[in-house]
Design goal:
The chain is of the alpha/beta class. The chain has helices at about 15-30, 45-50, 55-75, 95-105, 130-135, 170-185, 205-230, 240-250, 275-280; strands at about 5-10, 35-40, 85-90, 110, 140-145, 160-165, 185-195, 200, 205, 235-240, 255-260, 285-289.
């Protein structure tokens, strides 16, 4: 069963971090987790670093900047996180790299952070820091476009949906989802999207071939779930994977959607193309495992 002893919440002092903190607190209450609020001070911009300041002036500027950030961090989300076990950490460096490095060195069990979308098209934007963390972090990452809209008292975990593509990372994603669902006392549903050419939404061009593939997929899902989640509901639906996943998450009124990340590192990272679309369109927060 996965542990959530340590949950890392990167903060930039914006309202966008509120939703991530609320979900972290809701999970922490169930798992007796320690929440770490991490604020990263970025390096001084180039135009400041090249000014002809004396050493004392520059040192004072940096000290004042650090002191102000410390005061903000100490005061940030105090009301929202009342009653939780909270650590507040100030670090220096590039945000994404520092978050990932801290999560690894601090052995975080999960990272909770907003998508950082902006403006009227925010549902279609994944912030660069969040994208890099999703690519590079070893632990599960919880994010979503609707997190900040949730009131603390309405956050519940009644249904966990795990979307599986039957790739190498599927077992790890299912293990995490099954363990968390069991700990939360939540219903678990397993979903696989069978790709097909849609004549209209939800209706495939070659129905017979799609049904044959669906039977093969069900056998594989049942085999995968036999020891990990024998009581889980299995859902197989045809169509564009992100649309299928998000449509079924909405139908099931899922409170948490779990997806797997690829295992490849390097230039292509770990997050697959479908994962970006799922995170942007999901009606509930998404945990990328």
């Amino acid at each position: 069963m996965p542990t959530l002893a340590k949950i890392l919440v990167p903060v930039d002092f914006s309202e966008r971090c509120l939703g991530a903190a609320r979900y972290a607190k809701a999970l922490a209450a169930r798992f007796q987790s320690e929440i770490t609020l991490l604020h990263v001070l970025e390096p001084m911009r180039y135009e400041f670093s090249t000014l002809e300041f004396g050493g004392t002036v520059m040192n004072d500027l940096l000290a004042n900047r650090t002191e102000q950030a410390r005061r903000q961090l100490d005061a940030f989300l105090t009301r929202e996180l009342a009653g939780a076990q909270v650590r507040r950490v100030l670090a220096d460096g590039a945000p994404a790299e520092t978050i990932v490095r801290y999560a690894q060195s601090g052995r975080a069990d999960a990272i909770a952070m907003p998508t950082h979308g902006y403006g009227p098209f925010r549902r279609f934007i994944l912030g660069s820091v969040t994208a890099k963390v999703l690519h590079d972090a070893d632990c599960p990452v919880l994010t979503g476009v609707h997190m900040e809209q949730a009131a603390a008292e309405t956050i519940a975990f009644r249904t966990v949906m795990c979307a599986l593509d039957l790739g190498p990372q599927s077992r790890r994603a299912l293990e995490w989802a099954a363990g968390v669902a069991a700990a939360l006392g939540a219903r678990l549903a397993l979903l696989h999207a069978v790709p097909c050419v849609e004549v209209r939404p939800g209706e495939c061009f070659d129905r017979e071939a799609t049904e044959r593939l669906a039977r093969e997929v069900r056998d594989k899902l049942e085999e995968l779930a036999e020891n990990l989640a024998p009581d889980a509901e299995i859902i197989i639906d045809g169509g564009d994977p992100p649309k299928v996943v998000c449509r079924n998450a909405e139908r099931a009124q899922a409170d948490l959607l779990v997806i797997g990340r690829g295992s490849a590192a390097g230039i292509f990272g770990r997050l697959r193309t479908n994962a970006y679309a799922i995170i942007r369109q999901s009606p509930c927060p998404v945990v990328s495992v």
